[in-house]
Structure prediction request, 155 residues.
Amino acid sequence: MANKRIDQPTGTETVGHEWDGIEELDTPMPRWWLWTFYATIAFAIGYVIAYPAMPMLHRGTEGVLGWTSRGQLADEMAKEGRRRAPILAMLAQVPIERLPEDDSRMRAAVAGGRAAFKVNCVQCHGAGPRAAKATPTSTTTTGCGAATSRRSSTR
Prediction:
């Protein structure tokens, strides 16, 4: 067993470890630290019970609140679909060649195209008016990989 003794300057027992003449004192953790630690354990247990938290073999635990991030995403996507439905219906009523005749429909179509470009195209083509180097542009003969894959999947 280690050589335990009482440290004279502090009056605290040592744990018996010594390294280069420095001894480790056996001081207890501060009470505030222990209570914070216990509170985090209680919070974690409550979280595991309330929310889906633990993966199982075929699916995860469901939690007593019934909330899931997938359910929240589905709700938000449905809400966004309801918000965009009137705009899409308005755009569907007019042939694309006649869009410039109606300023509000044209603005809606351009805003939708801009959003689609930001989501699907900026990664390769860049955000500016010119494509990034070494990526297909709308003027190349091979075309964009995303557009090519979409075309081939609709055939």
Observations:
- The first strand starts at residue 14 and ends at 19.
- Confidence is low (pLDDT under 50) at residues 148-155.
- The beta strands are 14-19, 22-25.
